[in-house]
Amino acid sequence: MINAGSSSVKFQLFDVGAHDSLRLSTKGQIEGIGSRPRLLAKSAEGKVLVDDTWRAAAVGTVPEALDKVVAFLRDHIGGKLPVAIGHRVVHGGPDYNQPIIVTDAVIKHLERLAPLAPLHQPNNLGPIRAISDRLPDLPQVACFDTAFHRNHPEVADRFAIPERFYDEGVRRYGFHGISYEYIAGRLAEVAPEIAGGRVVVAHLGSGASMCAIVAGKSVESTMGFTALDGLPMGTRPGQMDPGILLYLMTEKHMNAAMIERLLYNECGLKGLSGLSNDVRELLSSGSPRARLALDYFVYRICLSAGMLAAAMGGIDGMVFTAGIGENAPSIREAVLRRLSWLGSEIDPALNARGGPRISSERSRISCYVMPTDEELMIARHTIRLLRKRASTRLAETRA
Fold it and tell me: Would you list the domain boundaries of the chain?
């Protein structure tokens, strides 16, 4: 499974067992692409399998980084290559509501969505194109962050704009869907008392959003047309008055490129604090602006929780996941104390230990911490599509 950014490529290798069970065998990344390239990979048990570095010029692009990864994988698994590669793709637009096997036509279609996710989409598609050029017969599967939200009621996906824009695809999509899909599947095992009920899941990381899940299905999300909407994030502002954009254009004479750079790179926790987009640094800082940024983050999470509870007609549970959600107990505590009006009561000792359950026995809603695993979810979709394609081809042969 591959998850690519602008300066790194993360990957995981899974072994397929009986009944298509999946077992993680290798996990790694090549980072510092174009600056200080380093390939580090470990086994599932934590043993270092490779730790190589190169000059910047030797690994200056994502395709060159992929060449290093492919060479390592060939050596690691006896000269073979994986049977397929699954990819996280942030935006699937209006046409893709489930994972799909990649073709040239699919790549071209997804390239047109790059303006809707400029930080993610080009980096997601770079490895897909590179692998397609180098290994055209290797199956690749695209898994979309928007797909889990595609069955929302229409009223939840609309903007109050003329119909022609909706027909063109201007609608609320929601993101982090691969993570939410994994959590929805885990609820039955970890929190069976709320698995069939109304649950707010908070995916809190450098990118952050929240999702309302009823009986395992997404019904509402804080993110909309792009990954700028909803909660404040590391460097993105979250929900804001669109009139601000008009002000920036007319009064500050900022063009589209300048506004894009501002919204994706200079806002959020970084903009509020003036210090950092890293919650760990803000928590350790004594700066009043750092405190303001964290208070604002918690405040907006709580506002969104109330909105999502209203969308579901009530709330039975809340789940925290992703980097901040899993590793920042003080943020979780601040959120749940502010949501006491919804019936949440935190158990400080359970919260300090990281859960999985962090609410007290008296709490009217069950609150949990659940690590997400987007890579495993992508692997599951990939093997399912491979089996489906094999079955289809066998049926066509017999016919």
Answer: 2-151+383-398, 193-374
CB 349 within 8 A of CB 377: no
Cβ neighbour number for residue 325 with a 10 Å cutoff: 25
Q: What is the 3-state secondary structure (H, E, C) of 293-350?
A: HHHHHHHHHHHHHHHHHHHHCCCCEEEEEHHHHHHCHHHHHHHHHHCHHHCCCECHHH
- What would the pLDDT profile of 60-96 be if each residue is shown by its tens digit? 887 888 888 888 888 887 767 788 999 999 999 988 9
Q: Token digits for 3? A: 């998850």
Q: Any idea which fold 193-374 has? A: Nucleotidyltransferase; domain 5 (3.30.420)
CATH classification (class only), 2-151+383-398:
alpha beta
Structure tokens at 184: 């929805």
Residues annotated as catalytic (active site), given as ranges? 145
